[in-house]
Amino acid sequence: MFETEERIRFHKEILEKIGAPLPAISAQKQNFDKETMFDYFVDPETRQWKMWVADSWSAPRRLLFSQLLIPTMDSTRTDFIMKSIGALPVEKSKLRKEFGLRNTLLVGGSGTAKTSIIIMYSRQFNPAEMSFKRINFSSATEPINFQEAIESEVERKQARIYVPIGNKNLTVFIDDMSMPFINAWGDQITLEITRQLVDQKGFYFLSKDERGQFKNISNLQFLGAMNHPGGGRNDIPKRLKRQFFSLNITPPSNKSIENIYGRILEVIFNPKKYTQDIITMRGHLIEATIALWEAVAKKLLPTPAKFHYLFNIRELARVFGGICKVAQQAEFKVIQNVTRLKEKVTPQLFLIGLWRHECERTFADKLVNMGDKKTFQDMLNKVTKEKFRDSLGFDDEQLMTSMLFADWQRDDIFDEYGELVEKAPFVYEACTSPDDIRKIANKKLDAYNELFPAKKMNLVIFDDAL
Ligand SMILES: Nc1ncnc2c1ncn2[C@@H]1O[C@H](COP(=O)(O)OP(=O)(O)OP(=O)(O)O)[C@@H](O)[C@H]1O
Ligand SMILES: [Mg+2]
Predict the structure, then answer these.
(1) Backbone angles phi, psi at 334, to 5 degrees
(2) pTM > 0.90: yes or no
(3) pLDDT 10s digits, 108-122
(4) If DSSP codes are grouped into helix, strand and coil, which group holds residue 447?
(5) Ligand 1 site, residue 68, Cβ cutoff 6 A
(6) Which of 1, 71, 142, 432 has a beta carbon 3.0–4.6 Å from 55's, enabling a disulfide?
(7) How close is the Cα of 145 to the center of ligand 2, in Å?
């Protein structure tokens, strides 16, 4: 259940106080990569410490950025534990007169990849044996929603015994488990019915003819994910918590992040589509993004008035998502041709401009006052200079671009009779100038108003809206 800092302390304590035979970790690795014994396991064959290594990954044929999940050391480790727990025997223990449990609950801060780890785990199921059902809890989830979601996945086997459809096993993943509303009596009734299902393996029939009878549901396993309780976030009832093996998820290390986005950019910026000067930008972009992200997270801290100043891996995903959106539309050659810009720049500078734009879009748009925005702009400029000036040989003036990007700049194509031939493709590309993009926005607005006079919108498109 330890966080990164506590893991380091724990490692030190048992090394110094007990002199436990821990893996040998160099001082540099300890300080820089924050490596501890949690990054190792004992190999059952050699009985030696061995480091966790991320599972291998091969790119799917259709690359959808938002669905790409790359195994990391953290995910592989968690995966191993979930698998081991999931394979425990379930006979009733003679001693405790209870069934064994096969359920794991991942607890961790926001954006620590809990959901991603479980989705990755579920993709390894053999569909002939194990089905997967994901249920997202929110403060509005009622017990009936949960019961209906489960009932839609099971079928009658014998009189009052139900099994997952196709007589398989079913893993139910309850995401954001702590979210359900706490009522005036301090109860989370949605979590009570959840507990009943996990603990007593069923719930009561609601249909008229069998109401009040207990409906047994077998062959279920559960996985859960929840945020750390406290700071305005709920906990879950203890009697539900005890049904799970709880595991704390720490934020992914920089090494894991480099690994994730390194792999993704590797498949998107590949030599079949891009030239070497563009491909070499991959490493620079990742390094710069992590440096900026760390600086922002350190400087712009959350306070009660700015409680949303949380910068986690989700922000990184947005920055890279934007870059990949351009890079994936290789057929439009936006990067190579540096389309639309009035002053032509090299593809490398164009990519840096795109990167700066994506960082502004993700980070600066969260900031609430001019002071913070200025702080961010300074950080962005500093990182840009540090990471791209000497290594790529650009000067400051070339680097300090502020480009705008939009994906609605192309026009529909009509033939000479005014019939639509082709809808405009959504190409995410640079805008020639703020004035031009305003013109395009106004033109689209006029076209809309002409088409739907009843729903006419009189909008003033001011700078921030653009
Ligand atoms: N292994 C990975 N490969 C690719 N992207 C990842 C990976 N892990 C995390 N991400 C990115 O990080 C984002 C946040 O991860 P995720 O949604 O799993 O976090 P979470 O812990 O469930 O957060 P929350 O507590 O807010 O629900 C994902 O949207 C995804 O873009
Ligand atoms: Mg989640």
Answers:
(1) -65, -40
(2) no
(3) 998 899 999 999 999
(4) helix
(5) yes
(6) 71
(7) 19
Sorted by sequence, the CB contacts under 8 Å of residue 276 that are 6+ apart come out as: none
β-bridge partners, 84: none
DSSP-derived letter for residue 61 is: S
C-alpha count within 13 angstroms, C-beta hemisphere, residue 412: 12
Question: Residue 94: what residue type?
Answer: K
Residue 342 in this model has a pLDDT that exceeds 80: no
Percent of the chain with pLDDT over 70: 99
pLDDT of residue 103: 95
The closest residue, in CA terms, to atom 24 on ligand 1 is 110
Say what the pLDDT of residue 339 is: 62
**In angstroms, what CA-CA distances link 94 with 97, 98, 99, 132?**
5, 8, 9, 31
pLDDT in tens, 264-299: 999 999 888 898 989 999 999 999 999 999 999 999
The rounded distance, in Å, linking the Cα atoms of 432 and 365 is: 22
Q: Which ligand 1 atom lies nearest to the CA of residue 119?
A: 18
Q: For a pocket test of ligand 1, which of 105, 115, 233, 293 has the largest count of ligand atoms closer than 8 A to its C-beta? A: 115
**Per-residue pLDDT for 344 more than 80?**
no
Element holding 371 (H helix, E strand): helix 370-392
Domain boundaries, the chain: 1-51, 73-249, 254-400
pLDDT (0 to 100) of residue 195:
96
Residue 345: pLDDT band with limits 50, 70, 90 = confident
Of the options 1.20.920.30, 3.40.50.2000, 1.10.10.10, 2.60.40.1120, the CATH number for the domain spanning 254-400: 1.20.920.30
Distance CA 78, CA 327 (A): 32
Nearest to 251 by CA among 2, 81, 442: 2
CATH of region 73-249, choose from 3.40.50.300, 3.40.640.10, 3.30.930.10, 3.30.1330.10: 3.40.50.300
Nearest-CA neighbor of 107 among 177, 10, 180, 41? 177
Confidence (pLDDT) at 100: 77
Q: Is the CB of 69 under 6 A from ligand 1?
A: yes
The per-residue DSSP string of 400-442 comes to -----EES--SPPEE-TTS-EEEPPP---EE-S-HHHHHHHHH
Give the residue-averaged pLDDT of 154-181: 94
114 Cα: distance to centroid of ligand 1 (angstroms):
7
Closest ligand to the CA of 120: 1
Say if residue 99's pLDDT is above 90: no
Give the Å distance between the CA of 251 and the centre of ligand 1.
10
- Per-residue pLDDT reduced to its tens digit, 309-322: 989 999 999 999 99
